[in-house]
Design goal:
By secondary structure, this protein is of the alpha/beta class. It has two domains: 203 residues, Rossmann fold; 66 residues, Helicase, Ruva Protein, domain 3 (Orthogonal Bundle). It contains 13 helices and nine strands. Strands 4-3-2-5-6-9-7 form a seven-stranded mixed β-sheet, sandwiched between helices. Strands 1-8 form a two-stranded antiparallel ribbon. β2, α3 and β3 form a beta-alpha-beta unit. α2 packs across α3. The protein starts with 7 loop residues before the first helix and ends with a helix. Bound molecules: S-adenosyl-L-homocysteine (SAH). S-adenosyl-L-homocysteine binds next to β1, α3 and β3.
């Protein structure tokens, strides 16, 4: 019977063979549950038409399963020692280059537009490193228009921030920005004991689908400007939003009266707090400012 890399015994054996000590600073929590790894790949509907990007491939537990289904898998890994082990394990596939490629890089520094276009990447499937997961997810959607779907494993607290809607305690500027770019769906939970070392929280597998905003905003809509506006509104999310926008160094401090007028257009008033407004409200405000 085939011994998958993601089986607990095999993972431990590989880590000790290469003298690898997993680092918390790089969010190295390896999935040691082959059933869940298969479930992730299945949920992403990976088929022989797909070129899939995997960020943080580690020793290739998820990669191995994906490679059996995908046209090609492109992996990104930062840790030199893990890269060395990966190159050893997949030496044949890497040499052939037709089914697998490995890029040693800091995933936060890559240009995903270029990477996706050059390789025809349409999907991202990853068990994201905790510390950079939230940032990376937005970066990839913003840059790589070709990527329509991502199936990502993230720790539960990040997933909750993404899935939060108005009124939830986790609702933040991050949720507003993320939901402008994409739709988020909960797929299933992976218990923390399916990872080594065992994290303090469980993980959620989420599906991210790029949103087509063409009906909502026109081509001239400035996304960076919009995100900047959202950040300004959420400066103090529990105080009145107009107070955040009235700060001396705020771009919007000269427009407060007008903003209050816009707020009354949508049935709110000058007392509203940033956490009480939905994405469509922010779009309305920004478009009219
Ligand atoms: N895919 C493996 C490992 C997931 S752990 C599995 O499912 O078991 C997260 C991985 O991301 C680790 O291998 C870690 O080294 C890598 N990583 C962390 N920060 C990174 C960064 N900035 N760029 C690329 N990879 C990174």
């Amino acid at each position: 019977m085939h011994q998958y890399i993601s089986s607990p015994g095999n993972t431990v054996r590989i880590l000790s063979k290469y003298g690898i000590k997993l680092k918390k600073s790089l969010g190295q929590n390896f999935l040691i549950d082959t059933n869940n790894a298969k479930k992730i790949v299945e949920r992403a509907g990976v088929s022989s038409k797909d070129v899939v990007l995997e960020i943080g491939s580690g020793i290739g537990g998820l990669t191995e399963i994906m490679m059996g289904k995908a046209k090609k898998v492109i992996c990104v890994e930062f840790d030199k020692l893990l890269v060395k082990a990966f190159k050893d394990i997949f030496s044949q596939e890497l040499e052939e280059r037709s089914k697998l490629e490995l890029i040693q890089a800091d995933a936060l520094k890559l240009d995903y537009k270029d990477l996706a276009l050059r390789n025809g990447i349409g999907k991202v499937v990853s068990n994201l490193p905790y510390s950079i997961g939230a940032t990376l997810l937005l970066k990839i959607i913003m840059e790589a228009e070709l990527v329509k779907k991502m199936v990502l494993t993230v720790q539960k607290d990040i997933a909750e921030r993404l899935l939060a809607s108005v009124g939830d305690k986790n609702y933040s500027s991050y949720a507003v920005k993320a939901n402008f770019l994409a739709g988020f769906k909960f797929c299933f939970q992976i218990p923390r004991n399916c990872f080594i070392p065992r994290p303090f929280v469980d993980s959620w597998v989420i599906e991210v689908s790029r949103k087509d905003n063409s009906g909502l905003v026109d081509d001239n809509f400035n996304v960076d400007g919009f995100f900047d506006f959202i950040n300004s509104c959420f400066l103090h999310r529990r105080k009145k939003m107009v107070n955040s926008l009235s700060q001396k160094n705020s771009k919007y401090c000269g427009n407060i009266e007008f903003i209050v007028k816009l707020l009354t257009d949508i049935g709110k008033d000058g007392d509203v707090r940033a956490e009480e407004l939905a994405l469509k409200d922010y779009i309305y405000l920004y478009r009219n400012l």
